[in-house]
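Example record for the data management plan.
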Amino acid sequence: MRFPVVLFDLDGTLVDSAAAILGSFHHATEKVLRRRFPDERILAQVGGSNLAYQMQLLDADPARVEELVRVYREHNDPQYADLGCFDGMIDVLRALRGEGRRLGIVSAKRRATVERVFAGTGIGDYFEIVVGSDDTLKHKPDPEPILRALELLSAPPQEAAYVGDSPFDVAAARSAGVFAVAVGWGGIHRVDDADAAAESPEELLGIL
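Corresponding structural encoding:
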């Protein structure tokens, strides 16, 4: 088995959340800043670091950043109970677990938000560990979240792959010394520089 451990990003990789994320950014910035940013500017930073940092890139005033985060989460968090997995991804998870692989999630979302996805989709039983943005001090593209996941699983980097949809995912994986797989179905990013790329869940299984 090439990779006994497979770690997954959440947004744009497991669940189709692009519309929810973009809508919540627009909701927050229009309500707090009274302005609307271009979609491409918002999406370019999604998945990098934590939400406060992403908001800081839009407005540098710390007081406004705090309000932006609060308004965003009030709008965004409840939606995660209703999100669905991309077609074919539950089959991928089932196949990987059936082969005896150990699976985990490393996400820029907080753990409570990941739990909402678990409750709505029923995929929680496939994963041994979750590392959310509230579990580490540093965030993607820093390797700390992936290294924390490997620590929890007592797994060496060379036995692991990290599957994500953003350049932040690829950078974090490479810095952590794990194999980086970029997926192309998320609707948020396009990544051309990765150890491997998958355009469909079936192709992902072939890589792993």
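Summary line stored alongside the record: The chain has two domains: 5-16+82-207, 18-80.
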